[in-house]
Amino acid sequence: MKTKIFILSLVLIAGSCINQRVTENDIFNPIKEYVLLKSFQFNSELIAKNDSVSLEVWYLTMPKAEFNLIYLSGNGSNIRSAISFFNSLAKQTNLNIFSHNYSGYGLSTGTPSIEGIIKDSEIALDYFNEIKNNNLPTIILGYSLGGFVAMQLSHLNSIDKVILMSTFSSAEELEDYLKKEALPKIARPFFKIDIDKKLYSLNNIDVALNLEKPLLVVHGEKDDFIPPRMGKKLFELSKSKQKYFVEIKGADHRTILKDDDKSALVATEVIRFTNSNQVVSR
Fold it and tell me: Left if phi > 0, otherwise alpha if psi is -120 to 50, otherwise beta: which for 249?
């Protein structure tokens, strides 16, 4: 609803047709603010991506950890955005958490790109595999755009299970949704969205069709930016014999991660997923 109101407001203010072209540069909103995570004893380091770019990595280890969690942020967010979720997890179980900031985010240098954030994550994951010093199950969790990265890395042998939170099916289907449904009918004649065809590479459908690893898809019931049916589609297409689809009641694209009560529900589902071997949609 908030998305629709914002777009309608733009139309009313402009008073004429708005043509919005979306390119690769537009989908990234690097958060440069450096925030200390006082809630946890996170370790942070800078590792080299290449001779000119460094990546900021964060990791937390807990005694008697039951699994490793690789967290991949969405656009316009960083590890700080997931603190409520991490708190909820830590209250319910012991785990190791590893994350990083994409190029251009936080203390990471460089400029983000679609190919670049995948490469960033591969390098960060290699580093984690070097330092983790355990044989615990490793779960990769991607939020929003981070879900795309998680899917791109899901084939790696070091990944045991996959979690998608508020993730789109494809940029092409998201474009269609924004044009035909996200906009109020009164605004549609005045607001044109044109997504650069290069962004069609943001496609999770093909990966889902071949994904056999255990999968959990979590989506906010009231997400009006990426509708729940997109997450449901990835769940249905997956070949996994151990998969869940869960809608978090009352949650939208933001509150599913940042609201204490909503993130606690997500944490419960994540922990349940670590010990599950069923196919469930609820």
Answer: beta
Tokens representing 264 are 């606690």
**The token pair that represents 172 in the structure block:** 């092409």
Q: Is the dihedral of CA 79, 84, 90, 92 positive or negative?
A: negative
Q: Are the C-beta atoms of 124 and 149 separated by less than 8 Å?
A: no
The DSSP secondary structure of the chain, one letter per residue, reads -HHHHHHHHHHHHH-S-EEEEE-GGGG----------TTTT-EEEEEESSSS-EEEEEEE--TT---EEEEE--TT--GGGGHHHHHHHHHH---EEEEEEPTTSTT--S---HHHHHHHHHHHHHHHHHH------EEEEEETHHHHHHHHHTTSTT--EEEEES--SBHHHHHHHIIIIIS-TTTGGGEEEEE-GGGGG-B-HHHHHH--S-EEEEEETT-SSS-HHHHHHHHHH---SSEEEEEETT--TTHHHHSHHHHHHHHHHHHHHHT---EEE-
Indicate whether this model's pTM tops 0.90: no
pLDDT for the residue 252: 97
d(CA 73, CA 78): 5
Q: How far is residue 151's CA from residue 233's CA, in Å, rounded to a whole number? A: 14
Q: Which two tokens stand for residue 242?
A: 């151990």
- Please tell me the predicted confidence (pLDDT) of residue 133: 84
pLDDT at residue 18, rounded to an integer: 59
CATH number of 40-169+204-281: 3.40.50.1820
The segment(s) of the chain belonging to CATH 3.40.50.1820 are 40-169+204-281
Give the chain's residues under pLDDT 50.
5-16, 36
pLDDT at 27: 74
